[in-house]
User: What shape does this take?
Amino acid sequence: MTELPLDGITVVSLEQAVAAPYATRQLADLGARVIKVERPDAGDFARGYDATVHGQSSYFVWLNRSKESITLDLEAPEGRQLLRELLDRADVFVQNLGPGAAARMELGPDALAQSHPSLIVCDISGYGADGPWRNRKAYDLLVQAEAGLLSVTGSPEDVAKAGISVADIAAGSFAFAGVMTALYVRATTGKARPVSVSLFEALTEWMGSPAYYTQYGGASPRRTGARHATIAPYGPVVAGDGGSVLLAIQNQREWGRLCTDVLRQPELIEDPRFATNPARVVNRDELESIIAVAVQRFTADELAANLDEASIANARMNTMHQLWDHPVLAERDRWRHVDTPGGSIAALLPPASLGGLEARMGPVPGLGEHTRSILAGLGRSEEEIARLRDASVI
Assistant: This one.
């Protein structure tokens, strides 16, 4: 098998839920050995979010393939000692415990810089490891609210949360990038620099466009449902057969083609109400009424074909079932099979493809599945492992 970029890198992670597991799964995809440290009783609490995937959590099977699971009671001195022995052999340590928990166990970046100077420490927090909200709990929906995402998402009447854990995923993505950068810095300078990411600041970065629009434009983008808040026409239209097609106009050239080739109303191109994008946004309701009438002569398939012919971007509003069966994923051979304790499942290759290399797509671990082998690797005998299990340390 071809060597992957992170073969030989060991990651130890005190992780739970989404943000840290997403970061470390991406490291595992690239070949890193990821040792996931879990509580002996129930493990990562994301294991219990639901039971939809062969009796397992949909979140957990998505985020934890290709990892090893060890159970350790970190309130027990022997448990903390075993963790430190794992860190002695690790390149990266990732944690997203509750506020202050890592520091209380002397697992913060400053303490580990003294005891493990070559270890890259990645802390994922809610609102930052310092500052006025360092001890505040943060969950994804709460961060969506604090970062202003809810204020620009939904319909004019109702706010709506994003349908995925967007703050967690943002933080996990930045943590992955930060660790990769730190590994490069260590390889080129010999210095291990700590990485810190907060959910709030990660999502705030993603809020850049509406934040600038509001700060310098004087008003926040309106909540516009499935329509774009600051570009028009950009959103769903209903064809004559009741099917929906989402179309997107990005520039004046596309606007002209929409008017002439699809709507067949070239006079709209220079109509003062619609001649520029800012004007179209102001007069959105009137424009959308004109479009709604004009597309009634098409079925949804015909409308999509006409938009394609006019080189105007469009999409169908797929359900999750339709996404699962999407022809792009099938024809590009993006699906693989991954084993889990409950049975084999389909899994998508990571979106970033490296030419000539395929990501590792290893099994999802059962709780504590690798405890014995990991401890044996630390030199513990079968008798010692049995004693630790009897004492509920593992």
Q: What stands out?
A: Residues 10-207+327-390 form a domain with the Rossmann fold fold (CATH 3.40.50.10540). DSSP finds 17 helices and eleven strands in the chain.
